[in-house]
Amino acid sequence: MQVNILEFWPRILQAINETLIMVGVSLVVAALIGIPLGIALVVTRQGGLLQNNAFFKGLSVVINFFRSIPFIILLVAILPLTRFLVGTSIGTAAAVVPLVLFSGPYIARLVESSLLEVKPGVVEAAEAMGASPWQIILRVYVPEALSSIVLNLTIATIGLVGASAMAGFVGGGGLGDLAIAYGYQRFETDIMIVTVLLLVLIVQIVQTLGNVLSKKMRRQ
Length: 220
Prior knowledge:
cell membrane
């Protein structure tokens, strides 16, 4: 039976809300994990402020391990962990767990890349003035790289939007779940088109906001 788009809008709005919740919560938690990891990768590497080759190599291996797992496989592989942490393996809350594990290591590498763009001369000047490693991290590295970090977090957010859509394969909720349940399984082409356009719109809004924030934070 063909679905009436106008009558179906409440369900579409609910799906949008679920997608925004999944992406928002996942981004915050993943950033809280990924940003410190990215900083650790920079300061413990060869020649870093807190050089520790064993720690750097071990952390790098762990991050690369999680980054190498395709999201759809990770989604299914950690279902027992997801069920243990949130009490269920389906729904919006359940989708957050794999989304965090997927994006946290990715954000770590993006932050690492941003921090490595900081000019060595700026760091050396801070060291010459007697700043401690933590002072250099908080007052030199992060402020100098903030514009780039915001831009890279924008990229991570867009990646999360795409991954949240894939979570629909296991009943993760959101626009992806809607597209699969109606657009794919029931051959409701109108629903599929609407969900795709909405995902594109969300991505465009996120990218625009990220560009604006990054520009405002860019140091002259």
